[in-house]
Design brief:
Blueprint: H1 2-18, E1 21-24, H2 27-31, E2 36-37, E3 40-46, E4 51-57, E5 60-65, E6 71-74, E7 77-84, E8 87-96, E9 104-108, E10 112-116, E11 119-123, E12 138-141, E13 148-151, H3 156-165, H4 170-176, H5 183-193, E14 198-199
Antiparallel strand pairs: 1-2, 1-6, 3-4, 4-5, 6-7, 7-8, 8-9, 8-14, 9-12, 10-11, 12-13
Length: 201
């Protein structure tokens, strides 16, 4: 009987966690798990120099401006806003670290991601693009509450500055070289360099 109750409790807790949908106004809200709950995530739409995140709540559509929030959640998928070319771009958190022993790695918000036996299987969605090549590359940051650096076309100076400022993350860059579009290489190199980091998928 105890075994049966344990199964039911685990199912309830796990289901509740994965079913979370909504947005975090601030990073502190994320830390405190203070989610502004929505019923359903719909989509992200490009709105010129911003992005709108659309949800359903009580049978009505709700528009949330990217500039007004820290991030949002759709089940196990966690997203935050990164400033790229003076635009608040949604990026999906793939891995996160404490900022000292591991950094954070992000992928474009529309990237297809599957769980392959506990390992992220990433596939770029090439049919959806905005701002040229910006969404075909990766993003990095020291921690979840620090600024995000874009690893893409014309960003070599930004990445070099990041490497110089945080030499503790050098093993990752030694492994990747400058192949920031090779999604599988990014995953493999990150997990090799920071096996203790948290996975978000």
């Amino acid at each position: 009987m105890k075994w049966f109750l344990s199964i039911i409790l685990c199912y309830y807790v796990c289901t509740s966690a994965t079913a979370q949908v909504g947005y975090y106004k601030t990073y502190d809200d994320f830390l405190n798990n203070s989610l502004t709950s929505m019923d359903e995530y719909i989509e992200v739409k490009n709105a010129g120099n911003a992005f709108n995140i659309w949800f359903m709540k009580g049978g009505k559509k709700v528009k949330v401006l990217s500039e007004d929030i820290w991030g949002y959640r759709n089940g196990t998928a966690l997203y935050r806003l990164a400033t790229v070319n003076q635009v608040d771009v949604p990026v999906r958190v793939l891995f996160s670290g404490d900022g000292e022993t591991a950094m954070c790695l992000y992928i474009p918000y529309q990237t297809e991601l599957k769980n392959n036996n506990g390992k992220p299987d990433v596939a770029w969605n090439k049919e959806i693009m905005a701002y040229g090549m910006v969404f075909n590359w990766c993003f990095i940051s020291k921690a979840l509450n620090t600024s995000v650096t874009y690893c893409g076309v014309g960003s070599s100076g930004l990445v070099d500055d990041f490497r110089d400022n945080y030499p503790q993350f050098q093993p990752f860059f030694d492994c990747t070289g400058k192949e920031y579009k090779n999604n599988q290489l990014l995953v493999d190199c990150y997990q090799k360099a920071f096996p203790q980091a948290r996975i978000h998928f």
